[in-house]
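Can't paste images in this forum, so I'm doing it all in text. The chain is below; anyone willing to post the predicted structure tokens underneath?
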Amino acid sequence: MAFRIERDPLGELAVPAEAYYGIQTQRALDNFPISGLKAQPELVTATILVKKAAAQANVALARLPKDVGQAIVQAADEILGGRLRDQFVVDVYQAGAGTSHNMNANEVLANRAAELLGGPRGDYSKVHPNDHVNMGQSTNDVFPTATRIALLQASAGLVESARHLSASLDRKHEAFRDILKVGRTHLQDAVPITLGQEFSGYAASVAHATDELAHARHRLLELNLGATAVGTGLNAGTEFTGLAIANVARFTGLDLKPAQNPFRVTQSMGDLVAYSSSLRSLAIEVGKIASDLRLLSMGPRAGLGEIVLPAVQPGSSIMPGKVNPSVPEMVNQVCFQVFGCDTTVAMAGEAGQLELNVMMPVMAWNAIHATTILREALTVLRTRCVDGIEPDARRCRELLDRSTAVATALSPYIGYAATAEIAKASARTGRSIRDLVLERGLLDEAQLDRILSVDAMTRPGVPGREQ
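Text version of the structure:
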């Protein structure tokens, strides 16, 4: 491989001659050969959008020569169009605050812009990574800004996916509204419920968590771009801040705005922590639903078997005909990973010091990763599982009729103790609740029919009484 020699304040270093990145990126490659994980495409795109917006703002303010600014913008557009993506090579686990990532972007843009102006790679006399591409910026405002933009763009699809899942669950609520079944608490028989009511709870849980996510997402619209190193705006200024953020808003269609307090957004990653927490909340709700679907479909002969999940693949390499709840199993695993990502984000959010949180790179990677996998998992859960769920109404009724929990409706009439005795006798002898009550002369037959109406037990009020 051919190399070129570049120089920075620490000295000289060989950089691959064909590389668009430069010496600071090469130092990061040498210093941090950690995971092989690179910045996600969403973060690269957001960073380049910030650089393009800054270049246009600096040209408009006559701080940057027009030809240099135009070359930077053209280079940015090429990257946004898909070129040079392989040049973003810095490991996720890098120097704090994302300086290596920021310089990787600065160097790639500078070298490509220099080429467009007729210069060779590695010669920064025409376009300099710091002086021109990074003009009016600091890693400390570029990286959090890019992180917020990346999450805003990635999470739009997650909110949509979650809304669609809630709607699918709600359709099942309507379709299953008349299917009576036994409810369960503590994994034990409880009072009757309809399968539709059960699914209505699932739909509402997802909808509520999605609303929380949308609220947390809204908080990411505040940007500290132009705050530079510590929030003061040194070497940038309010005109630059206004123009640069307006440019990014125009590029993305997002309602972005300057931070009300740039010191808060520079010091604190609280908005990112809140967003990650909302991902965890959504994953908790969805993970619980996935686990319930596995329980409700278990069997099909030796388990509950109250619903039938779509068969998506053979379930065993040794047992012919076995079909597993593969999609809910996948969803559970994704949710566990989201919990892990959130733990990392929370711990890193607390680890900031004074005017800056240097743990931003690991926070950004985990938040974007969690957003991406949860978004795709919810889509698969809906399209390859929930949309195709079928009830087994006969099995639901069979298990309901075998349950002693219907005796609960007797308590307002004969008291808790007598009802408990009836339930125990039914479980011990296998005789029905109805027969035991009539045998003991506790209630007359007509009244008992009204009280033990399973359908009435799924509605508010006391069965057998005028509501």
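The beta strands are 3-8, 11-16, 180-185, 188-194, 222-223, 257-258, 307-308, 390-391. The longest strand covers residues 188-194.
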